[in-house]
Every structure is written in structure tokens, then in C-alpha cells.
Design brief:
CATH class of the largest domain in chain A: Alpha Beta
Number of domains of chain B: 1
CATH class of chain B: Mainly Alpha
Structural class of chain B: mainly alpha
Strand order of the largest sheet of chain A: 7-8-9-3-10-11
Helix content of chain B: over 70%
Number of domains of chain A: 2
Radius of gyration of chain B: 20 Å
Number of strands of chain B: 0
Order of helices and strands of chain A: EEEHEEEEHHHEHEHEEHEEEE
Order of helices and strands of chain B: HHHHHHHHHHH
Number of helices of chain A: 7
Strand content of chain B: under 5%
Largest sheet of chain B: none
Helix content of chain A: 10-25%
CATH architecture of chain B: Orthogonal Bundle
Shape of chain B: globular
Largest sheet of chain A: 6 strands, mixed
Structural class of chain A: alpha/beta
CATH topology of the largest domain in chain A: Rossmann fold
Distance between the termini of chain A: 41 Å
CATH superfamily of chain B: MetI-like
Largest interface: A-B, 31 and 21 residues
Radius of gyration of chain A: 21 Å
CATH superfamily of the largest domain in chain A: P-loop containing nucleotide triphosphate hydrolases
Number of strands of chain A: 15
Number of helices of chain B: 11
Oligomer: heterodimer
Chain lengths: ~300, ~230
């Protein structure tokens, strides 16, 4: 039972522009899960990922992956990043400009395996760019290379730091598929940082909610973000972008994760704690929705 | 062309090449340390390395001469145990020249390394690569312009060295007489013709080196990521 558990209990004092943050993450994850680390910026999400990768050393604590101890401040154990067999995707992708796409991917491999490198490039639609340098790629292409590269070494643990933050919505949805694909590829345990709710619902088996350096919730996206009282038939998450006042009611505009615009009417008491920019849930209870195929 | 002329150019070339090679070997680890270490006394080290930029060559030359003198412990040690006398020898000039050109090698390399995002190193580590492997395969190839600038500047600066060579080496033909000193000597003896030939060659070499640097740096300008 313990063999397929990742145990994390780490503390670190962080000093940032907004003050001192005492990061204390205590949780456990199962092997093979796709966990989205969710929280506001500055909550300590990136630091958690860096700690797991061995790039940032916690002040104290313990990290155990299966029956292997990665970090134990009491026993002075701190495995180097090189010894953790992870794939880490940086926010800036960190593609090496001196190497081509293929060379970047091959560089990450433990044992040179041309077949597997080609397979990865094929999977992420990179074959035609194989001999291009990263400076000659678009943002989305770079991101795909970075993602493929993290998989090249067949890691036990995939750490993705806001992998889709810089993309427009279409590209984002496409790459969410890639990440799901990558996860299904070999069921690698994956930790992904995001502060986009639609991404959470799209990708996560489990969500780890972090607030001010502390885990404030863990569970499926439904458990964490959907109020139990709602037994809605249709539920859509999105961002509230506009509140317009009409005579007796308000018209709210919500943009969903897939960039659909939804208009919702609301009354004074509904909008009391709503603000433009809020992440919201749009749901209906009273009627049965119909479904129709529009595209295969 | 007479042999003395060729000999002087040969000494000049030998001195500049050897200085550059030695500095390359010293400069790579030192600049790596200077770029990434969080050592508390680093500013002192940095200041020491940069001293030759602001110090008159005669001051540095004076101290080097004092160090070489058998009347003090370093020179005494060398002469007693190794029978080596560095003052007014090619080797003595070479060591002084290495010290004097140190900042020209270290500074471009160090600032080149610093402009690389940390994620390059870190990404390579998470891919299981050692620090040394990362340095030679990821960091160094991505600071090629700085690398070439460091090499070319060091070389060009050595070619033009005057004060320190004169202080430490004098002007012994075939041993420590370099082109820049020869020009001075020839002018003193009113041999403007020879002086002119030396001057032209030095001008051409320095100019060519700088053109090389600027051409390469222009080609690599699109270095910014993302």
C-alpha cells in the first residue's frame, strides 16, 4: 500500500515582494494520478514543484516516493535533481537554443533511443520541425517540444509548472489534450500547476488546493469546487467578465474555458458577492438539456 | 625583412597566444565560480580580478618584479629550489601578462553565463546531467559570442601590451622584446621606417580582431529566448 504513495511534508520560509510566507505542505498522492496544484499566484505552487524536483531545498521535512526517501532533513538526506528521475517543465520552457528540436529531446534521454525520440516527436506533431532550433518555433510549438522533452527520459514523476499559461484558448485546449495524452501514455504521476479553473476540470483526477503556503483542500474537482447543494443537470465553469444592469435585473456575461460566451440573468441578491473577473459556475436545474453532435 | 624584425613579431605572437591559452584554462572555472557562487567574499575576488583594468601597468609591473626578486620569499623560493629567475625572462613576462589580462577573459565569460536563464542549468540537472556535462554541453555553447569576445579581447590586448612587458621583461631581443616595445625603441633611435612597419602590423591585427568580434556578435544577436 505504502509503495505507491508519495508522501510530502515540507516546510520552507519564503521571502517575496509581498512579504514572508511560511510554506508548509503536508499531503500524500497516489502513483499514476494527474494532480492539479491550484491556487493564487504567490501561494507557493511553483516552490512546491521546485522542492519536489530538488531545485529548492526545504528548511525541514520529508519527501518519500514509494519506499524511496528523496528528502529527509532529520537524516540529512537530499537527493540531487539528477537522482530523482523526474520530468520538469519550466514556465519559460528552458529549451536549449544551441540544439535542434530533436537534439533537445535526445539530450534528455537516459539511454539514447532514436525510436522513442521519434515516437515522441510524432506524438506531439513535431516531426517536421525536428531539425529546427527553438528560436525558430512559435510559442505553442516550443511548449510541445518542452512537454515532449520532459517525457523523453521516461520519468516516474512529471512536474509541469503552468505549462499552458502563455497560450491562447484554442492552443490551450489542444495542449490540454496533449497533456492528457502524455499522462495516459504511461500513467506517469503528474503534478501540474494551474490557476485556471477550466483547466482543473478538464485535466485533474485530483486537485490540491494551496492557499498562503498551506493545503486547504484535496479531492476531485467536483468535490472541491462544486457546492453539494447544487444537483444541477448542466454545470459550466467560466469567468465572469461583465455585469450589466437592466431595469429590474442584471445581465451577466460569462466566458467558459472553451471560449463560449454565455449570458445569464440575475437579480440583485444573486450578484451581491459577484465581481467581474470571478471564476463562476453556471448551472441549470429545471430542465433537461439536449445534446447533439456538431463535430467529430 | 631582417631576422630581428621577424623575431620580435614571433615573440609578440608567442606571448599573446600562450597568454590566451593559459587564461582560457584558468578563465573557464573561475568565471563559472564568479557567475554562480554565493561566496560571501566574492566582491573582493571580483575587485582583485578587475584591478588590471584600472591600475597603471607600471604599478602591477613593479609588484611583479618585487615578487620575482630573490630578495623576497617568492623569488627566493624559485631561485633556491628550482633555480628559476623570472625577472627579464620570457616566462616572467608570460606570468605577468596572464595576470594583467585576467579581466579581459573572465568578465565576458562571467557576464555571458549570467545572462543565461537559470532554468537552462536546472532543466539539464532534472534530466540527470552533471554540472560539468551541463556546463560544456548547455551553458558554454549558448554563450558562444561571449566566449569568442573573451578570446579575441584577451589576444588583442596581449598584442598591445606595453607597460607591463617593459617593466618585467625589459626589451631583450628574441626574449622579451615585443612589437609595441620595438616601436618605442625604433622611434627613440629615429628608425621611423621600422617603427612604421611594426605599427602597421599591430594596427591591422587589432583591427581584424575587433571586426571579428563585432561580426560574430551581430550574427548571434537573436539570442533572446521566447
Amino acid at each position: 500500500m505504502e509503495d505507491d504513495l508519495i508522501e510530502i511534508d515540507v516546510e520552507k520560509k519564503l521571502i517575496s515582494a509581498s512579504g514572508i510566507l511560511n510554506l508548509h505542505i503536508k499531503t500524500s498522492l497516489n502513483f499514476g494520478e494527474l494532480v492539479v496544484v491550484f491556487g493564487d499566484s504567490g501561494a507557493g505552487k511553483t516552490t512546491l514543484l521546485r522542492i519536489l524536483a530538488g531545485l529548492t531545498e526545504p528548511d525541514r521535512g520529508l519527501i518519500r516516493v514509494g519506499n524511496k526517501v528523496w528528502f529527509d532533513s532529520q537524516a540529512s538526506v537530499n537527493l540531487r535533481p539528477q537522482d530523482r528521475n523526474i520530468g520538469f517543465m519550466f514556465q519559460d520552457y528552458a529549451l536549449f537554443p544551441n540544439m535542434t528540436v530533436h537534439q533537445n529531446i535526445a539530450f534528455a534521454q537516459k539511454d539514447k533511443d532514436k525510436n522513442y525520440a521519434n515516437q515522441l516527436m510524432d506524438k506531439f506533431g513535431l516531426t517536421e520541425f525536428a531539425n529546427r532550433k527553438p528560436t525558430k518555433l512559435s510559442g505553442g510549438q516550443k511548449q510541445r517540444v518542452a512537454l515532449a522533452r520532459t517525457l523523453a527520459r521516461k520519468p516516474d514523476f512529471l512536474l509541469l509548472d503552468e505549462p499552458l499559461s502563455a497560450l491562447d484558448m484554442n492552443m490551450r485546449t489542444a495542449l490540454q489534450d496533449e497533456i492528457l495524452k502524455a499522462h495516459q501514455f504511461n500513467k506517469t504521476t503528474t503534478l501540474l500547476v494551474s490557476h485556471d479553473l477550466s483547466e482543473v476540470f478538464r485535466l485533474a483526477n485530483k486537485v490540491l488546493k494551496i492557499d498562503q503556503g498551506i493545503v486547504t483542500g484535496k479531492g476531485s474537482p467536483d468535490e472541491l469546487f462544486l457546492n453539494d447543494k447544487i444537483s444541477g443537470k448542466v454545470q459550466i465553469t467560466g469567468t465572469l467578465v461583465r455585469i450589466e444592469k437592466h431595469d429590474t435585473f442584471y445581465l451577466l456575461t460569462v466566458i467558459t474555458g472553451t471560449n463560449q460566451v454565455i449570458k445569464v440573468t440575475a437579480f440583485q441578491n444573486d450578484i451581491e458577492n459577484l465581481h467581474e473577473g470571478d471564476q463562476v459556475l453556471v448551472f441549470t436545474k429545471a430542465f433537461n438539456p439536449f445534446i447533439r453532435k456538431i463535430k467529430r | 625583412m631582417d631576422t630581428a624584425f621577424i623575431e620580435t613579431l614571433w615573440v609578440t605572437l608567442k606571448l599573446a597566444t600562450l597568454t590566451t591559452l593559459i587564461l582560457l584554462i584558468i578563465g573557464i572555472p573561475v568565471s563559472y565560480f564568479m557567475a554562480y557562487s554565493k561566496f560571501r567574499l566574492k566582491p573582493i575576488l571580483e575587485a582583485l580580478i578587475s584591478m588590471p583594468l584600472v591600475l597603471p601597468p607600471s604599478v602591477l609591473g613593479y609588484y611583479v618584479l618585487v615578487a620575482y626578486s630573490p630578495r623576497y620569499w617568492f623569488g627566493d623560493l624559485l631561485s633556491r629550489f628550482f633555480n628559476v629567475h623570472l625577472a627579464f625572462s620570457f616566462e616572467g613576462v608570460l606570468i605577468a601578462s596572464v595576470i594583467f589580462s585576467l579581466p579581459f577573459m573572465i568578465q565576458p565569460l562571467q557576464s555571458g553565463l549570467r545572462t543565461l536563464p537559470d532554468s537552462f542549468r536546472e532543466a539539464s540537472y532534472t534530466m540527470g546531467k552533471s554540472k560539468i556535462f551541463t556546463f560544456f554541453r548547455v551553458l558554454l555553447p549558448n554563450i558562444k559570442p561571449s566566449f569568442i569576445t573573451a578570446l579575441a579581447l584577451t589576444f588583442a590586448h596581449c598584442i598591445g601590451e606595453f607597460g607591463i612587458v617593459l617593466m618585467v621583461g625589459g626589451s631583450m631581443p628574441g626574449e622579451t622584446r615585443v612589437a609595441s616595445i620595438a616601436i618605442y625603441d625604433e622611434v627613440q633611435s629615429l628608425n621611423f621606417d621600422t617603427a612604421n612597419r611594426y605599427a602597421l602590423i599591430l594596427f591591422a591585427v587589432s583591427f581584424a580582431t575587433l571586426i571579428l568580434i563585432y561580426t560574430i556578435n551581430r550574427k548571434q544577436e537573436s539570442w533572446k529566448m521566447i
